[in-house]
Amino acid sequence: MRDYDVAVQTVVYQDYDLDGLLAELAGTPVDTVELWGAHLSPADDETTIEAGEAALAEAGVSVCGYGVADLEGTGEAEAHVAFADRLGADYVTVNYPPVRDDITEALCDLGETYGVDVAIHNYSGVHHDDLDAVFSSVADVRDVLERHDHPRLGVCVDTGHFLVMDEAPEEVVPALGERIRAVHLKDTSEAEIEDAPGAGVLDLREFVGLLDEHAALEEPLVVEYELDENVTAELVEAYERIRAAMA
Fold it and tell me: Which residues pair with 239 in a beta bridge?
């Protein structure tokens, strides 16, 4: 089984600022992040961005991806893709209405221009009442990927949201296959609708095996959850479960 790196989506630390989350990560085995815009974004002033870049470098934390960028139109897309490139990220995760082919086309062009992969992120009814405004099913994602067969356009599989929508990994991963550019490892359980990976119904070993068989993922497996307490302890435990699943 492939030995994937393990990263964390910094939304896990939504109650911390950038310096605070980096201090928390220092006590974990995780040194790679997918950076959330509330911690650092293209909307920040140049002084703030430079300070954030310096803090990441000093902490020895690398950025594999940036997002999720919520897009309402084509005009705001370039700022996010360019920012991902500036951070040294390989991909940007994005969210927008599936019918907006104009946004998809703009993202494909920008991905090619900046050499950054664009990964469509799936959602569920957990955060969105209007599911027509987001990608909420395998069919939503496949339809857009088939209409836009561009090498820079793919998908970020959020396992938790697919599970909430009753779409199982054994259906999702083969259906999306080599268009999988990133993964958010999230779980769902009786205790928490958005739980740490391996704490609920997600079979981590099965999921990694499916990636090995059907995808060509080169990016880290990104841990994501939204819990109120013990977020760092949960991260360490999730990391250990993922490493054990790949053993």
Answer: none
Distance CA 63, CA 32 (A): 6
One-letter amino acid of 61:
V
CA distance 223 to 238: 8
pLDDT tens digit string along 209-223? 999 999 999 999 999
Whether the full predicted model's pTM is greater than 0.70, yes or no, is yes
Question: What is the DSSP annotation of 145-196?
Answer: HHH---TTEEEEEEHHHHHHTT--HHHHHHHHGGGEEEEEE-B--SS-SSB-
Neighbour tally for 244: CB within 10 Å:
11
* Position 129 pLDDT exceeds 80: no
Distance CA 102, CA 159 (A): 27
